[in-house]
Amino acid sequence: MLYPGFNVFEKSINEINSFVVFMASENDETFIVIDAKNGADVTSLGFNAVSLGDGKFKAALTHENACVMRKLFPFTSPVRGLGKPVSFGLGDRLGIATPGHIDLFQNHDVFPMFAQQSIRELTLTNRTYKDVLDAASFAVFREGFKKGFGADGDHLKTAEDVEYALSLGFTMITLDCSEHIKNNAVLDSTIPDHYKTRYLDEKITVGDYPIVFSQDELKECIAVYEQAIGFAKDIYFNFFEKKYDADFEVSIDETISVTTPLQHYFVARELLEAKVKFATIAPRFCGEFQKGIDYIGDIAQFEKEIKIHAEIARHFGYKLSIHSGSDKFSVFPIISRETKGNFHVKTAGTNWLEAMRVVAITDPSLYREIHKFALSVFDDAKKYYQVTTDLSKVPDITGLKDEELPNLFENNEVRQLIHITYGIILSSKKDNSFIYKDRLYKLWRQYEDEFRKALVKHIGKHLELLHI
Predict the structure, then answer these.
(1) Using alpha carbons only, how large is the chain's radius of gyration in Å?
(2) Where do the CATH 3.20.20.70 domains begin and end in the chain?
């Protein structure tokens, strides 16, 4: 071993000037080690570090040291990636999944968004965007991943949140326009002339599909989406045009109404007419894209509609974004085919479910305890997510053998039960101490290899069915 006394992550060894910098661990602590050669002044690098003697220094995995690391080693900084044909969002709610993701994406020509979180997820896990970005950067450094990765401030709804994420170095913003989409708006009796010119007086085709607006359909598009388009324009011109170098995604999927092809076309064209440069749009597709389970709905209808949505995206020169993409195995081949391999997919909760599957395998008693707790708090968790979980279909685990517990994660009701209660599970306390969080992280540290292999297998299935 090059550095006796440490458990060195050998893929992390990098030389810069007169220093060797790498990551190591001791007991349950992981840290950066700086080996200063020939008496070099370690302060010149900028790390906040303490001396270990013999020219070696130890730097904790703090935000300040992460910022230094990103400056010294650019491969640990996120970059823009939605311009790649296929990009894949990997929401790591725990801050420990990226090494497993790297094991998989090291061998695929797919651009990964290792840092991807929504404000809702941050609130439920008591994390910050600094935590999310730093966890990804440290993992990339530790594993020597130099292919590039992105950071997505996901489902942001306010200018303040957008600027916060961008100021930290996030390279993608998903703007959630749902609060500005007026599904029940009253239709105006008149249509402004510029809309008539663009949509009623012009023959429109995209690919093989005619786009034909009736007056009422156009009125509906204006009434429902005009405010959302205005919101997206304001965010773009205030933050993206001159101030920050990042990809812009417009999300219109968090709404009760399916996005029709006419509505999709209208939103895209109005944004482009206003000179807004965006990389992706996320429509609300037909059927149900619920969390952590397969697609629910008419697959033939989905295939018919996504053909047109994909044609619209190609027509205007951006790609479709598919949200809540975790485990949508039945429609993945359709998505890949109809978009001609040009798409962005977001996943998140499925990584948490794989972590909990590892718990069921390695510590059945702890899993049983958490499962029972999840049932007791499920109703509280439902206010954050739209699910159709039927708890009567959740098996009584008191009658299951320990070796049968991992099979629970093949049951949709159990998947949703565990999926949406993650925030309460991780944050619940008794006598000012976490009930489960510390025990879970200790287990995941102990069984890191098992978790990594589980992610490679499960996320790998996503890539396989997406024909990657």
Answers:
(1) 24
(2) 77-348
